[in-house]
Amino acid sequence: AAETVPRQRPPASDMGRGLPLLLLPLALLAAPTRAEGGTVVAEEVHIEVLHLPEACSPKSKKGDLLNAHYDGFLASDGSKFYCSRTQNEGHPKWFVLGVGQVIKGLDIAMMNMCPGEKRKVTIPPSLAYGQQGYAQGKIPPNATLIFEIELYAVNKGPRSVEAFNQIDKDGDKKLSELEISQYLKEEFARDGKKRPPSAHDEVLADIFKKNDHDGDGFISAKEYNVYQHDEL
Q1: PPIase FKBP-type domain: from which residue to which, for each copy (predicted)?
Q2: Domains in the chain, CATH or no CATH each
Q3: Which of 40, 62, 84, 204 has its CA at a distance of 20 to 30 angstroms from the CA of residue 178?
Q4: By the 8 A CB rule, do 65 and 158 touch?
């Protein structure tokens, strides 16, 4: 039988601090749905902030690497279909925000979230598993989902603006073979692992093979796939 979890009030300690329970409808939406009569109706992700740390920083943005626990429930009956604490030996889940590693509704719901923050989010079918559902995950078609999320860490993602700028020593907004070579040498020295003499050249060649799409001998911000390359 499915596990039913009753809705609970936030801890008394949180309420005593005067933190409001905010219901924030976001306007960042997927494809709209059509109501009767052909009217286009936007479906929203609703966010309820259960706990907000006094020092709420840094706040998550697209491309950040997040570490979080979350439980998933069906809105229809409250049954739990997912619990990150029962997977990976109970370790929180790591993923990059805003790039499709989780369902679109979670990508939206976890924007501007800080370490220590807890949220309860309601995600419509169009931003979850839609009309097809997800049988393997015990999610029926057209299911509205509820997630209770606790965020532990917000780190710079593997392809962040900061990472690009760290490699781009001369600041010309493109990465040369020399710059990437130097970065690899620094990283190899930092982790201290033993590698064959050919490892550096092989990794360098592979990086350019996979990323230098126009073959000009440089990796641009677009080729590097910086998530917020408009900042460059």
Answers
A1: 63-155
A2: 12-155 (3.10.50.40), 161-231 (1.10.238.10)
A3: 62
A4: yes
